[in-house]
Amino acid sequence: MKLMKRIYARADERGVALPFVALMLTLLIGMTALAVDLGWLYLNGSRVQRGADAAALAGVVHLPHNISGVNENVIGGANANGWSVGELNGDDSVGTGPDIARWQPLSDNRLQVELEARVPTFFMRVFGMNEVTITRRATAEYIKPVPMGSPSACFGVGAFAANMSGNQSLTNQGLQHCQAYAMNFWAAINGPRTAKEHGDPYAVACIRANSSGCTAGSNSDYRENGYYYGLEVPSGKSSITVKVFDGGFYPRSSGQTETGDLLGLAYSNTSAGPRTEYRVFAPDDTPLDPTDNTSLVPGCSRGWDPVSGSSSNRNRWDDICTINNPQPGIYVLNVRTTGTGGGNNSYSIGVTSSPNTAPHVRTYAINNMSIFTNSTSGVATVYLAEVGTFHAGKTLQLGFYDPGENCGGVAGCTGASDVHAWVTVRQPNDDIPTCTWTARHDDGTPGDSGSGSCHIQSTLHGVPQFNAQWLNATINIPSGYTCTSDCFWKMNLDMDDSQDRTTWAARVIGNPVRLVPNESATP
To answer: Which one, out of 19, 135, 203, 492, has a CA that is 20 to 30 A from the CA of 333?
Structure first.
């Protein structure tokens, strides 16, 4: 009987496990379905982030003034990554899709984009969730050109221009805010028929020349449009006025305390000199390349023919033009010489604005600066290039053409055993960085080279070491590099008689457009 009871009891328990198995299978299938949907949503979250990243990187280059360009590229960047933007900043866009994009400028070179996409689900539809909205943000910035030569609204204001009295003083010209920045040099450009070895590799058409033409072949580095300056205009300005001091070519004798427009740099048997032209171009969408700015601001072109002797424009500030309601961004001032004249024209640039309060317009050389340090005894400190903290870990490349020639009163700059000169690069904290350097002659053949402290002797016993040569220095910016309000690297010209006609170049190797951490604010 006991055996029969046990048999009947087992028979009653048959099928009891089936509900548990069914329940477990349901849970397993549900968890699998949830895992599939979560994986799908995670994947699409990454895709939305890539779309936001692409939209920010594509749109930021059009800041600050080209709003239509930002709109077009934000949509294009998102759509190129598989989305279809149908609404941008609250307005219907050209796209037909359900996705939404928003953007806002955080500064004149930083853009924040928010992309909102609707992602369909699979198994979660059972629970009434047919789609999930995913939102991601990205912030991008473009690196402006490396400013050279000046942190102020003036460029190349030598001591003579800085100390002019009367109506031509910086204060009466509205440029009193430039007085805090000692330039120790003039902006300069040579005429097309000047010998290249006199310090200007780009504005001269010949290796050597006279009044009849080139005597030693054409200059392969010659560029017709000379040099470019950035006039960086902040928002809130109702007008700006571009000025130039001593804009024409008016020859002086060597050593005069004025700008030092010198005829003898090319040939001395003619009074011909270069015509100097100043042209202002409107901002465009490629701030790193000033050569493609083609929109000449109406009324912003002026030139001076050479004058032998006195001139009404000599030793005075003249207006190039006034621009009303300027766009925030980087206007480009192009300075070039034309004609068949030779010689060196030195000048200064200044920009006033209304209201004439901080932040002021910034005026600096782009890519290259051609200068003349005039009658500064001892060590002349010159602003070289602004290297912000965001360049940490990158490579700074510097070029100096025909630098640090110390004549010391000796004809031909040779023969004085006690005449020496050095060029020294200094960081904002005054430290001398480590660099490797090489020299290159005009014909392309290599010169001297070295490495170590960027303190390089440029004249040895009266003999210039880099006459008609490029001295190229490479500096690895430390990954921990920082700077505060003053990020300008400087150049010390240690010379007995700091008259030097030279041209410098600077660039930072690295991606000019990059993603940066998002700020807390949302568009």
So the answer is: 492
Q: Which pair of tokens denotes residue 485?
A: 């309000």
Q: Which fold has domain 376-515?
A: Jelly Rolls (2.60.120)
Give the separation between CA 321 and CA 325, rounded to whole angstroms: 13
DSSP 392: T
Handedness of CA 424, 430, 434, 436 (dihedral sign): negative
List the chain domain ranges. 16-142, 144-375, 376-515
Cα distance between residue 256 and residue 140, in whole Å: 50
How does pLDDT run along the chain (523 residues), one tens digit per residue?
Answer: 555 555 555 555 666 666 666 666 666 666 666 677 677 778 888 999 999 999 999 999 888 878 888 999 999 999 999 899 999 998 887 667 789 999 999 988 899 999 999 888 877 776 677 788 899 999 998 888 899 999 999 999 988 888 899 999 999 999 999 999 988 899 999 999 888 988 999 999 988 887 677 888 889 999 999 999 999 999 999 999 999 999 998 877 655 557 777 765 544 434 567 899 999 999 988 888 899 999 999 999 999 988 765 677 788 999 999 999 999 999 999 999 998 888 889 999 999 999 999 999 999 999 999 999 875 567 889 999 999 998 999 999 999 999 987 665 444 555 556 778 899 999 999 999 999 999 999 888 999 999 999 999 998 888 889 999 999 999 999 999 999 888 999 999 887 665 788 999 999 988 778 898 998 654 4
Alpha-carbon distance of 164 to 158, in angstroms, equals 10
pTM of the model: 0.81
